[in-house]
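Severity: low
Component: inverse-folding endpoint
Summary: output formatting inconsistent between runs
Steps to reproduce: submit the following structure tokens with default settings.
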């Protein structure tokens, strides 16, 4: 329900996003929202020749009609027409922040405000109260389970890792106001438990399952995550990191100087020859340099620099001394580093951002400005009941969240403060 309880059309936000992403679409979106051209010839974006607020001139005088409003002017008219509705905002904020409707007393508190200024003060106080409640902790655990696509029903099966700990750890970081970067860099107690009665998180080391004791790097080494995304050559684990925390699919980055190759164009930011393929390893199990259909290297110049760090984690998410993932070719051999990168090529998060192991990968992810933007955009979409940024293409133009991203950086990446700011924002309280 949490993704469907928002007002069906957040016109102001939708139009703003559309303008920023593709200004020519605004007229059509406004037409859909405000009536088709057949309904009202004078509607914004409708079939009339007169823009609202303009004078067409006396009939028959030969005076030319004023030009129709531009897309930017149409958007401004719509945004200016919005009115704050703190009662409606309270209802949605309560459902989002604590998974329940506001109480009658809280509704009356808003209604008792003498004017919008007083209602605003009352509403923002309630947002602060809700984000400090035990229910907020539970809502954040649900949010991160949805985001990570993890979770389990009942007790952990013997020999398996808990798939609740990653979401619980992410929720703890938010609730306690820790820096968001801890999600990737924390070196201890990254598999906490949560007591809903006491509303407390208790840090704990992650289970090793009797395997090899390895490094700890936030959720990057969480056994439940690594088990959930176990697959051939560990590529699914890397996709999870990329799509969840950078908010985009591969290719992760592109070169400013793409070049034609085979039946396509190579756009990677690393050299084409820097990954394993038939060009530099004639007996390669997978030819990542193939250009006969698509340019595999566009994605794999980044993928292949991260995946080898995760090949020793087995299907239960526990680190072993030897490789655990397979290469999807006959006989399914165990993947080796040479299957990804030729000798001499190192690991990296991005071009110019080399790493040596998972903890240094976590540090590089934490320092990436696009990862910070992704975190802000995800909670923005959550508040406004939009879909997933990657799977649903619910992207957000930078101009929409730039102020929040800037504040996120200056407040030491306190995502709880960003969440409060979003629920108090003009786009959230105006309709």
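Observed output (run 2 of 3):
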């Amino acid at each position: 329900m949490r993704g469907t309880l928002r007002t069906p059309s957040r016109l102001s936000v939708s139009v703003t996003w559309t303008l920023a992403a593709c200004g020519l679409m605004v007229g059509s979106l406004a037409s859909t929202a405000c009536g088709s051209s057949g309904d009202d010839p004078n509607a914004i974006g409708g079939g009339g020749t007169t823009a609202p607020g303009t004078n067409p001139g006396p009939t028959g005088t030969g005076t030319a009609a004023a030009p129709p409003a531009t897309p930017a002017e149409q958007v401004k008219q719509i945004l200016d027409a919005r009115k704050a509705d703190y009662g409606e905002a309270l209802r949605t904020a309560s459902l989002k922040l604590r998974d329940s409707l506001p109480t009658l007393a809280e509704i009356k508190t808003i209604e008792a405000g003498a004017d919008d200024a007083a209602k605003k003060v009352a509403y923002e106080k309630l947002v602060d109260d809700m984000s400090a409640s035990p229910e907020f902790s539970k809502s954040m655990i649900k949010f991160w389970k949805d985001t990570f696509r993890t979770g389990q029903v009942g007790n952990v099966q013997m020999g398996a890792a808990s798939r609740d700990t990653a979401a619980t750890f992410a929720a703890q970081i938010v609730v306690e106001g820790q820096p968001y970067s801890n999600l990737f860099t924390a070196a201890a107690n990254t598999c906490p438990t949560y007591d809903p009665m006491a509303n407390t998180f208790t840090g704990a080391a992650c289970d090793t399952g009797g395997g090899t004791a390895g490094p700890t790097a936030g959720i990057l080494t969480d056994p439940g995550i690594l088990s959930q995304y176990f697959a051939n050559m560990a590529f699914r684990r890397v996709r999870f990191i990329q799509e969840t925390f950078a908010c985009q699919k591969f290719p992760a980055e592109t070169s400013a100087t793409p070049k034609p190759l085979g039946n396509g164009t190579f756009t990677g930011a690393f050299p084409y020859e820097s990954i394993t393929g038939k060009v530099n390893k004639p007996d390669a199990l997978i030819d990542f340099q193939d250009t006969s259909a698509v340019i595999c290297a566009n994605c794999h110049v980044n993928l292949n620099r991260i995946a080898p760090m995760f090949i020793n984690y087995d299907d239960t998410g526990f680190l072993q001394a030897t490789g655990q993932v397979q290469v999807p070719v006959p006989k399914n051999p165990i993947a080796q580093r040479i299957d990804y990168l030729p000798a001499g090529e190192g690991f990296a998060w991005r071009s110019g951002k080399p790493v040596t192991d998972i903890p240094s990968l976590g540090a590089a992810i934490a320092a990436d400005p696009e990862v910070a933007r992704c975190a802000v955009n995800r909670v923005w979409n959550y508040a406004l009941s939009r879909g997933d940024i990657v799977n649903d293409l619910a992207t957000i133009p930078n101009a929409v969240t730039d102020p929040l991203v800037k504040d996120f950086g200056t407040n030491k990446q306190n995502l709880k403060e960003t969440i409060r700011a979003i629920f108090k924002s003009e786009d959230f309280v105006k309709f």
